[in-house]
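Dear support,

I submitted the protein below through the web form. The confirmation email said the job was done, but the results page showed an empty box. After a refresh the structure appeared. I'm attaching both so you can tell me whether what I see now is the final result or a partial one.
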Amino acid sequence: MIKSKSLITLLGLGPLLLIPAIVISIAVVVILSEQSAFDKTNQQLERERIESRESSVRAKVDSIVDLASYRKSIIEAELHDRIKLRVEHAYKIAEALYQQFAFIYPEAELKKLIIEALRPLVWNNGESFIWILDDEGVFYLAPEYLKHLEGSSILDFKDANGLEVIKEEISIVRNEGEGFLWDCFTKPGESMEKHFKQLAFVKGFDHYGWYLGSAEYLDTATYKTDRELLESISKVDKDGSDYVFIVNTQGDILLNSSRPELEGKNFSAFNNPLLEELSDKIYAAIQDDGKGLIEYRWVNPLTAKIDVKRTYVRQVPGTDWVVGSGFYKQEVDAEVASMQKTLSTQHQQRLQDLLVLGAVSTVVAVLVSLYLTVTVRKILKRYQLEIKVKNAELRDLNASLEAKVTKRTAELRVANRQLEQLALTDSLTGVQNRYACMNELEDEVRRNERYHETFSVIMLDVDFFKEVNDRYGHDVGDQVLVTLTGLIQSCLREVDKLGRFGGEEFVVVLPQTGLQEAEAIAERIRLKVENFDFNPVNQVTLSLGVIEYRSGESVGEVLKRVDVALYSSKDQGRNRITVFS
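What the results page shows now:
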């Protein structure tokens, strides 16, 4: 009996001692945690801001390097297309004149009419023009500086490398009807000792045994592309302190939006220690793998004062261009100081709130504890008498509740699975939605970081899908998308993941897949869709971009690269695949 009373007394006093102690302990832990979090945030702030700015300029420079690399890689392809288009245009003019006047004018007059109609077709300040020769090498149409040769045979003419150019052109026309030829010539207005590589295209004009031709110097085409590229790049953050600059390995300053007076000049032309320091550090950074972070002194365009600048530089592969962009340490220091000031104010306010809350909570805890002490003692005595009955009732109640909880848990599990499926599935096509695609990409990036397993990504878009909706209606457009997903799935493996990224745009994630295999899968998809009858639409085609993951890339960078590849396919005429390594 004495032991029972002592136990009740002890249990009754428990709340009076325990609750205030718990409240005070929690308050102390919360305040110490707040202080620790504040100190840690302050320590990491500057490093995180610098890392964030470095990541930003890296992404900017890398995207510009990718663009420049791509544009320079297609210079010759565009040159082929451009020259052929000129000759085809001239051919159509000559053919139209022949068809219209062949039975009206004498042959000599009609020849003269065609020649004079094509004479004004010149490009690049007279460097490129249309010429006409016959299969004996006789010049019928020549540029102004060679006009004295019209009517003469130049069959034995050789270029700077000894190539018998006219004979080669005649051979191409006789055997193939048309074709391209590389040769090497001097340029009008340039030294006769200097030779330039040029591409020519010739096409037979059978009515008179003629052939038409035109050519363009490779360095002219390169200069034109570089100029357009520099103009585009100069618009990127032109007014910001983290502007882009471009130099070449000979020290020429090609682009500097902040200091346009430097453009077109060489580092050696200035007696400026800042430029010398920058030049030395740029070329040291790109020596090993063509890129690197450098730190140097430079004039901040926003303050007009010399500041320490951190810049990421990267050489455009296969060229002498070096692209750079950076940020000033003073700007980061100012950002960090401002953020620290804000954090400090918020921290002080939170500490005051926590102290007030702790004091109030302690007072309330003491009062509640007193009340609970009295109440608990009364309840404990009453419960001693009722404990046996209540135990029996509780056993029955627990059994009933356990059954209900088990049933409810099973129902919730089914509902959660259904909700999870809805959250990850595109309602129209039944494949993964954009959110699920992003999860798949994040999983593959993490898998690469842990196991170094590569993966590839295909992004595809239905060509002219708006026309399908406009012409046949959205119901037909939806059916096309549903059919399309089935066709794509049939070309994939079980491990591959297809998702609808938005509208008519889809993404395929290919785990443990290299670029060559990914390109083969993409081609299989493109051909299958191209050859399928989407009645009533008949034919649907796709533009596709294919990339392989680069170690260290974020999901955003992966999507950006594959998006650029996709839109390159669209720019080149659609129904094709563009692969970025």
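Response: this is the final, complete result; the empty box was a page-load delay. The first strand starts at residue 122 and ends at 123.
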